[in-house]
Structure formats: structure tokens, C-alpha cells
Design brief:
Blueprint lengths: L1 E5 L2 H11 L5 E7 L2 E7 L5 E8 L6 E3 L3 E6 H8 L7 E6 L5 E7 L6 E7 L17 E6 H11 L5 E7 L2 E7 L4 E7 L14 E4 L3 E6 H7 L8 E6 L5 E7 L3 E7 L8
Antiparallel strand pairs: 1-5, 1-7, 2-3, 2-6, 3-4, 4-18, 7-8, 8-9, 10-14, 10-16, 11-12, 11-15, 12-13, 16-17, 17-18
Helix pairs in contact: 1-2
């Protein structure tokens, strides 16, 4: 049996918003350590990995490892019925075909109960090796979202170039070209120095990626003030949003080869 009680519905709302347009149906893997999800998008271009550790929930109970296949869009619609400060409880019994969702108002004046039919999803589980990246950029998640949005009007692709001086984002399309450079240690948000740009560099890296996917990843922006971009010449880009102290969303995207447009 699974029972997981989350104190604030807003965390689950934002998490589902960040992945439901990329992955429509997926297995939620539940064990002693918490809830995990890993799935490719329908085009098999990007991989998303989600983890919400058991300490995110109080209480958290998982008697044995279970996989819950479900429509993320449908789950998101149910969770959106909750207020941001409502308490969400997920319950699933062994060998049952439904997951039960309870939404409780903070003052206990309202209790909403829903059930969602589970699905039998045959999905491959991808082993993601621990990787030492040549370059890792830590930057404002809001600024990354803005850069992706602004450059998407010019091109379908964006090149990310890392040097010891900072990181440069550029796009070159049929109607024109543009670039944004963030200097090492610089902060675009004067009120939040925690979002200052930091580049850890073993060697410079320049790679080009699909802007459509990068812009989709930035739907996770509300979950974290900062985003981590990790790159190596022979590896997919890792875009990571850390959810406070309770988990993360990681997106993996292979670079484009050849023509950058």
C-alpha cells in the first residue's frame, strides 16, 4: 500500500505542469525512498526524470515497490482542484486499478476525494549513468526562461557556448540572429544574489539544441530560482531544477548535429 501526504498542493501542481505537456502517460515508481518518474517524450527526443523523496511527505508509507501508470494530464486536472495551500494525500492499494486523491483545506473545512483509473503502461526504464560534465552553468531560472522565449522568435535552435568568462546563448534563423551573454559572477536580479551566474568549467563547450524543447523545459521555472545546465561534447544536455530539499526535475536533450538552424 502507498500513502503519501504532501503539505502543499502547489508543489505537486507545479511539478505536473512542468512535465505533462512533454510526457502524457507515465509510470510513477514508488518505493521506500519516495516517488520517481522517468519517461521519454513521444518523439523520443527528450528524457524527463522526476524524484520526490519520502521526506517531502508526512506521513509517507510504501509497503512494497509499486508502479502506478497514469495519465499525467488527468492527474494534473484533479490536483488543480486544490488550493495552493491544501494538503494532498495519494493512496493506492496493492493490485488495485485506481489511485485515490484527497484534497484537504488547511482549516479542515473542506475535504475533496477523487479517484483516477490506473493504466498498464509498458515503458522502458533507462539507466542514466553518473556523468562528469565538461561544463556546468548555474543561473537564474527566470533569465533562462526569458532567453529561450526571446530567441525562439528567431530560430528553432539555440547554441550554448561556455567559457571561463561566462555563457553565451545565440540563435541564427531566416529572419535574423541574436545572442545573450551572461558574465561569470554577474547577477541579472539585483535583489537575489543567489541567482548569480556561475560557470564551472573543465573545458569550453559549444553545442546546439532544439529551442522548442528548451522552452518546454522552462515550464519548471516556478519550482526553483536557479537552473543548472550541464554539458559535455559527447553527452546530452542536462537541465536540472532542484525542488527545495525534497527532489528534482531533470531533463536530458541530445544536441543537434550539423546545421544549427
Amino acid at each position: 500500500m502507498l500513502e503519501a501526504r504532501l503539505a502543499q498542493a502547489s508543489v505537486l501542481k507545479r511539478t505536473l505542469d512542468a512535465i505533462k505537456d512533454l510526457v502524457s502517460d507515465a509510470n510513477l515508481d514508488c518505493d521506500d525512498n519516495g516517488l520517481k518518474l522517468q519517461s521519454m517524450d513521444q518523439a523520443h527526443v527528450a528524457l524527463v526524470a522526476l524524484a520526490l523523496r519520502s521526506n517531502a511527505f508526512e506521513p509517507y508509507r510504501c509497503d512494497r515497490n509499486i508502479n502506478l501508470g497514469m495519465s499525467l494530464g488527468s492527474l494534473s486536472k484533479i490536483i488543480k482542484c486544490a488550493g495552493n495551500d491544501d494538503v494532498v494525500t495519494l493512496k493506492a492499494e496493492d493490485n488495485k486499478d485506481k489511485i485515490h486523491i484527497m484534497l484537504e483545506a488547511p482549516n479542515n473545512d473542506r475535504l475533496s476525494e477523487y479517484s483516477l483509473k490506473l493504466m498498464d503502461i509498458d515503458a522502458e526504464h533507462y539507466g542514466i549513468p553518473e556523468t562528469e560534465y565538461d561544463a556546468t552553468v548555474r543561473m537564474s531560472s527566470v533569465e533562462f526562461q526569458r532567453i529561450c522565449r526571446d530567441l525562439l522568435v528567431l530560430s528553432e535552435s539555440m547554441t550554448i557556448e561556455t567559457t571561463k568568462e561566462g555563457v553565451r546563448f545565440s540563435a541564427d534563423g531566416d529572419i535574423g540572429a541574436g545572442s545573450v551573454t551572461l558574465k561569470q559572477g554577474g547577477s541579472v536580479d539585483a535583489e537575489n544574489k543567489e541567482t548569480a551566474t556561475q560557470v564551472e568549467l573543465n573545458e569550453p563547450v559549444t553545442l546546439t539544441f532544439s529551442l522548442k524543447y528548451l522552452a518546454n523545459f522552462t515550464k519548471a521555472t516556478p519550482l526553483s530560482d536557479v537552473v543548472y545546465l550541464s554539458m559535455s561534447s559527447d553527452q546530452p544536455l542536462l537541465v536540472e531544477y532542484r525542488i527545495e530539499d525534497i527532489g528534482y526535475i531533470r531533463y536530458y536533450l541530445a544536441p543537434k548535429i550539423g546545421d544549427a538552424n
